[in-house]
Design goal:
42% of the residues are buried. The strands form four sheets. A seven-stranded mixed beta sheet has the order 2-1-3-4-5-6-7, with helices on both faces. The longest helix has 15 residues, at 210-224. It has 15 helices and 17 strands. Helix 9 packs parallel to helix 10 and helix 13 runs parallel beside helix 15. The radius of gyration is 22 Å and the shape is globular. The chain has two domains: 4-151, Rossmann fold, CATH 3.40.50.280; 179-427, TIM Barrel (Alpha-Beta Barrel). 35% of the residues lie in helices and 18% in strands. The chain is of the alpha/beta class.
């Protein structure tokens, strides 16, 4: 029997470690609270198997996280939890729950609490109080129902991310995750209208000590036999001196592993990228997003096309694999701006492209200001908020014009070299069978 069960619902896309749950579990275990983690993405259980697990473990608290696009799955799981263990306390955290806290609590009886904002300290205090029979009314960062929905005062953020312990990663089979993940920072100081992270973390960024990051890499290499690591942070190269310190620490320890990161094109230079390569970096991911400066301005990107060209060419000179993300169906978009983006992709030596559709996630500036951006939601079902589905219409470039133009663009981008693979983005108008909560 365990005190707390932590669950990550399934979702479509790359299987990555449930890093947030690892940190939560470690914080609880260090304070004498027993935990277990279930990752439905890596191993989707049947409903009957899940029921048997709940009966055998009989957790006192179940915590679950979710994105917007698998929120309905998370709610199905919680409903099943309440059926099998009626006296269990259910808790949800994450960006989506923090953005729509009041709405979620008022629309479901299967959820008892929502942790708003950063979770480790709030969830730890909540579990300690629940397991000790103490009241929870004074727990900062907590939302719950009484006669009406109560939102306690914000807890704020940890000033020192180095308080986070290195997760042992012994609760889930390592073979489920071909690439390990290490958190390098939290937050983002930039203002992209499609990202909820900047609002969630109040437009600030906190960096972990490079020595602590290297410690975690060394642990993964020596204790977990990992050879590939993804550095999880929204702006890896935000501070050049920090990148320099981390690379120096990796080289000093002679750590042998391949790693990748995501960053901005205006925060790199050739010298930095070459040093990253020497320290084991294999791939860099750039959020380029569009090939027209007016559309970029409307997206809140604050980058120039010149910086795009420089960043990609520098990365290739450093012998790095370059991946780039692009977004279509944007404010101010038309066939001419789409053509500008196509030309940028053709002339720039990018190795891999991911194409997405602009999606109005709760908590973003786009969600809060649809009229300002001349957009309107045409599909309110969160299951389709995957960045691969058409859920929002540009009033100045409506569906009847956008759809044929976008299909022509995708064909010209040569996304179909493998006859057995059709990217989901090409079928963005189809109503897919919804992702299942249970096998």
């Amino acid at each position: 029997m365990i005190d707390v069960l932590l669950i990550s619902p399934s979702f479509q896309g790359l299987t990555r470690e449930p890093l947030g749950l690892y940190y939560l579990s470690e914080a609880l275990e260090m304070n004498g609270i027993s935990t277990s983690i279930l990752d439905f993405k890596a191993s989707l259980p049947s409903r009957s198997t899940f029921r048997e697990y709940l009966r055998s473990q009989h957790p006192k608290v179940v915590g679950i996280t979710s994105f917007t696009f698998n929120f309905s799955n998370a709610m199905q799981i919680l409903q099943e939890v309440k059926r099998v263990v009626p006296d269990v306390v259910t808790v949800m955290g994450g960006v989506h729950a923090s953005a729509l806290t009041k709405n979620i609590l008022e629309s479901t009886s299967s959820l008892d609490y929502i942790v708003m904002g950063e979770g480790e300290l709030t969830f730890l205090e909540l579990c300690e109080n629940l397991l000790s029979g103490l009241p929870v009314e004074d727990v900062k960062g907590l939302a719950y129902r009484k006669k009406e929905t109560v939102l306690n005062p914000s807890r704020g953020f940890m000033n020192d991310l180095d308080r986070l312990p290195i997760p042992k990663r012994d609760q889930l089979p390592g073979e489920n995750y071909p690439i390990a993940s290490v958190q390098t920072s939290r937050g983002c100081p930039y203002g992209c209208i499609f990202c909820a992270i900047n609002k969630f973390y109040e437009n600030r960024i906190r960096l972990r000590d490079p020595v602590k990051v290297a410690d975690e890499c060394e642990y993964l290499i020596n204790k977990c036999n990992r050879e590939q690591i993804y550095f999880f942070g929204d702006a890896f190269t935000y501070k050049s001196s920090w990148v320099e310190e981390l690379c120096d620490e990796i080289l000093r320890r002679r750590l042998k592993f391949h790693w990748a990161c995501e960053t901005r094109v205006d925060k790199v230079d050739l010298s930095m990228l070459r040093k990253m390569k020497r320290a084991g970096c294999a791939s860099v991911q750039y959020g380029i997003d569009y090939g027209d400066e007016e559309v970029l301005r409307r997206l809140g990107k604050a980058i120039s096309l010149e910086s795009v060209d420089d960043a990609v060419r520098w990365a290739k000179k450093a012998d790095l694999f370059v991946e780039a993300f692009f977004i279509f169906n944007c404010p101010s978009e038309n066939e001419d701006t789409m053509e500008n983006t196509f030309k940028l992709i053709q002339k720039t030596p990018i190795d891999a492209v991911e194409v997405n559709l602009l999606t109005p996630y709760p908590g973003t500036s786009l969600w809060d200001n649809m009229d300002k951006f001349r957009m309107r939601i045409v599909n309110h079902d969160f299951d389709y908020f995957t960045t691969k589905k058409y859920v929002m219409e540009n009033l100045d470039f409506p569906r009847r014009k956008f759809v044929p133009a976008f299909r022509r663009l995708l064909k010209r981008m040569n996304l179909f070299s493998n006859p057995d693979y059709t990217p989901e983005i090409f079928d963005f108008l189809k109503k897919d069978i919804k992702l299942r909560a249970f096998a």
